[in-house]
Amino acid sequence: MSDLVGTARVRPTARTRRWAVGYLFVLPIALFFAVFVAFPFLRSFYLSLTEWSGFTSPRFIGLRNFQSLADDPVFWKALRTTIIYTAVTTILQTTLPMLLAVFINIGWRGGVVFRTLLFIPVIVSFVVTALLWQLIYDPNFGTLNQVLRAVGLDALAHPWLADPMTVVPAIMLVSLWQSLGFYMLIFLAGLQGIDPNLYEAARIDGAGARQEFLKITVPMLRTVTAVVVLLNLINGFNTFDVIYVMTGGGPNRASEVLGTYLYKLAFGTESGATPSFGYATAISMIVFALCVAAAVVQLRISRRARDVG
Amino acid sequence: MSAEAPSTTQQATVPGRAEGIATRPSRHRVPAGRRRRRAARRSAGYVFLVALSGATVFPFVWMLLTSVRHRDTVFGGSLVPDELTFGAYGRAWSQLDYLSHFLTSVVVTTLTVLGVLALASLAGYSFAKLDFPGKQVIYVTLLTTLMMPLTALILPLFLQMKTLSLLNTRQGLILVYIGLSLPFAMFLMRAFFETLPDELIDAARVDGAGEFRIFWRVMLPLAAPGVATVVVFQFLTTWNEFLFAQTFLQDPEILPLQPHLFGVVRGQHVTDWPLLTAALTMSVLPMVLVYMRMQRRFVAGLTLGAVKS
Amino acid sequence: MVTPAADNPGTPTGRPRSGVTRRDVLRGGVLGAAALAMPSLLGACDSGDSGGSGGSSGGKAKVRLWTWYTEQEKQWPMLAQEFQASHPNIVIENRVIDYDAYLPALQAAVSGGDPPEIFAPHVLAIEYGKAGIAADLKAELGADFLSDFFTSTNDEFSDGGKQYALGWMAQTFGVFYDPAIFARAKVDVPETWDDLIEVSNTIKSSTGLMPCVLSNNPGSNGPDFVLPLITQTANDPHLVLDLDYGRNGARWDQPKVIEALTKVDQLIKGGAFAPNPNGIPDEQAQRLLYTGKAAMFYSGSWVPQGFAGSAPKPFLQRYKVMQTPAWTAGGRHWCANQAGAGLSVSAKSKNKAAALEFIKFMYEPARYAKVMNDSNSMPSTNAAGAQVTDPVVKLMTSWLLNGDGAPHILFGKGSAGAATNALAALIGGKSTPEKTAAAIQAEVEKARTR
């Protein structure tokens, strides 16, 4: 009898039931997002339209922060440095870890040990990383210069962090060092999902290692590569920790990126006694826009590649 | 046979990539010359790995060496300390109230990891394998979390936490960690789920399994590398985090280990390096343990090959 | 006829069902709820937050003390214990925060309306005072209490007749040197900057060692070095203060400033300094001195404590400090001196009275002197200054007592950022004095319009 009652209502189809599951699975994360991300972000967005020192009330000034940014040579310099830094580190930190993952995946005795050692930089806190590399780059006592002098390459010994020409590449090296193990791990995990039969078939067809890599490995890793590229882009645009501790953005803005500039505006000495939160938040909106743009572009590219491939 | 020749000559530029993915060819007679070349490449490969691992592990070695020195030989002394002293470890343990902060870190990190894992795999699966209207939009919106500079969010988040009465509580900190970390974990899990074949799901549905059971029993076990990756990364990120912990937690007793360490030991001008490195070395151990435990999942051996097409 | 009631897979009808089952929902719900509820389990273990401004624990007034002063890391707990013993209804909660993470924590607390009772104000003392966040200590503690502090310390934190912070650890800058190297090179302590160039070149040619080290990574020492020079050219510490706040029409691109910058340029080009100041962090600079690679090091009074921890004993026993060189022979040795480390009191806290009690307790001359001596730090009061035991710190403190102090910290909007960066360019040999001055002025003007 209870069965018959149900037939009077509209029956949910299997499809809509699956919709319900889909939404249900996503509900918790959506809740967290709303509370811990969306609201603060909206507040942040509002703050970018204000002048705020952090302790008095924010004063609405419309788009004036963005106008000031357009006139601010430090902002433009930081933007340029950020973009160059992000582009280079993304390329390096996608290709090299991929190659390394493929290399390690061949199978080596003691592979576990190597994988752990390569991962150490990720485990070490960024403060220690920054301080240690500052030590390495020290012009007088630094390991790098000492090694160069020891092998007779005295001429190459350099004040790596003091020279505006070398400071950014030096920091890029630190970034590469830090993230090699991290992205290698992601690629390794992705490699496990590739069907070994594909390689067997290719070998039977007479393909060499390079062809196997280019025709099988790379395409099969497409999704993972997209993940890694996007992460690199986002991390690049947001970079701040290590640079702040190593050089503070100096000397004379040579290593100033958007992240360090905005931190100093909010919490440092950039503004002196009156922090400029509104201004700093405006910059963070720009960083956000950059990341979104990068994600959109990347999505388009990978979608097109998927359609073609 | 002749197909082998081009592949071997292509190896000259890339050290050690002998046969691509490791499946040993079952040939009985390999010419001696080729065997020697392969062995040489293998050795070169090991040398490369050892060198690279050395480069990545040296900060940890430096930390270990520094933690057993006397303070006045940290910079002046030789590379390997003449005199070993474990006093720093003793001081780190007793002076810094190590155990209680360590336990706080363990609890906070574990709960964060579990929370992130549960919710991110649910959502990641949903985005990868289930269909519902607005899926792309929701996914991309959630992803924007990754793109926001945390520096700008910190103050709005603080005010948000205050409104929710979550300030100065460990559960509040955990909730913030979960909220901010979910998108990245979800991103990873979705990527891993996408590499799994749909046929399994269809088969399970035909067998009459409910959606959650499909997720829990069928797909999640197959995504073990993804799970392991998320666990490792989330553990690391949370264990090492200290800016948010410093800002949202005010009572010094409930601080996790990292913020406590850096606050107490690292001065504005002067640092007690042996003490800091001893404390940090001890704090690195759980991360190494988690990593070594999880990374077994990365080694191939899952039943991907068993998928019936 | 399909019945919707067959929720369980594998019912007797054998009909397959896909979609959400009750069990699914339950499982999902439990999993989700568990994930969310687990953190709350910790709630039982937490003391919860101290709502409102100023909390209490167990009926006692709680005074929170936030600083980054690891120098007194051992002394804070002892001070707290001693105070609590004699004031049983007050609890002191001391928190030392990592220097780089200090401001977010403080500013967040302030923006939330609940700053700690006593806190290190960083550069924000006057602004916090004007906004009513930091208490006017002249009114709270009385002018008598403040009279024993060094004048420059009081001035730094004062505005409009009110004072918003007290100096805790003062700083002066001088040139630390190794007398052994001086003896080897047969040179005397330089009196003027030109003497310094001469001495440096002699040291270099006769011993091959580095002369004077300037440590400008990450760049905050640039202003520490150059700003007193500006005072020297003007023979008046108020010029820097005017430049900082843009008062009295003072501009950075004026002749006096350019004069000072030219001297810096001469020093660098004249070889007075070790190469690459922009690449040398403070700790490595200290190391250059105590490992015998350099003869001199221009830095601040925190260095003795650094040496005490890291330098070999023979060095500790022989190193000395000399005054900042003067502009001319017989001229005044203006040296940088302000208290970078101060203490403010929250104006609106419920426990302000308790906080002030603790302040008075900490600054009692005998106690304050002991704390400063034990931590090898320079005090900010005359009384404690007279009791400094470490000879180097004692000498440096005496310069303050003589009134030779000149400002070296910039508080004005945009000043510090502008000065640090332009000076780094000059010190790195990449700019000229005129361009540097103009650059500072331009950037400061821009910042003030923000």
Written account of the structure:
- Chain A is an all-alpha fold.
- Chain A contains 14 helices and two strands; from the N terminus they run H-H-E-E-H-H-H-H-H-H-H-H-H-H-H-H.
- Chain A has a single domain, classed as MetI-like fold (Orthogonal Bundle).
- Chain A has helices spanning 2-8, 14-47, 64-70, 73-105, 111-123, 126-136, 143-150, 164-192, 196-204, 209-220, 222-238, 241-246, 258-267, 277-308; strands at 50-51, 59-60.
- Chain A has a two-stranded antiparallel sheet.
- In chain A, a hairpin with a 7-residue loop joins strand 1 (50-51) and strand 2.
- The radius of gyration of chain A is 25 Å and the shape is flat.
- The N and C termini of chain A lie far apart (55 Å).
- Chain B has a domain at 97-297: MetI-like (MetI-like fold, Orthogonal Bundle).
- Chain B is 67% helix and 0% strand.
- With 450 residues, chain C is α/β, with parallel strands linked by helices.
- Among the domains of chain C are: 56-170 and 339-404, 3-Layer(aba) Sandwich (D-Maltodextrin-Binding Protein, domain 2), CATH 3.40.190; 216-278 and 413-450, no CATH class.
- Chain C has 21 helices and twelve strands.
- Chain C has helices spanning 22-41, 75-86, 99-111, 125-130, 137-141, 143-147, 151-156, 179-185, 193-207, 221-234, 238-245, 255-269, 282-290, 303-310, 313-318, 352-362, 365-374, 382-385, 391-401, 415-427, 433-449, and strands at residues 56-57, 60-67, 90-96, 118-119, 158-159, 162-163, 166-177, 210-214, 294-300, 320-322, 335-345, 405-406.
- The relative contact order of chain C is 0.15.
- Residues 1-21 and 38-54 of chain C have low confidence and may be disordered.
- The interface between A and B is large, with 106 and 105 residues.
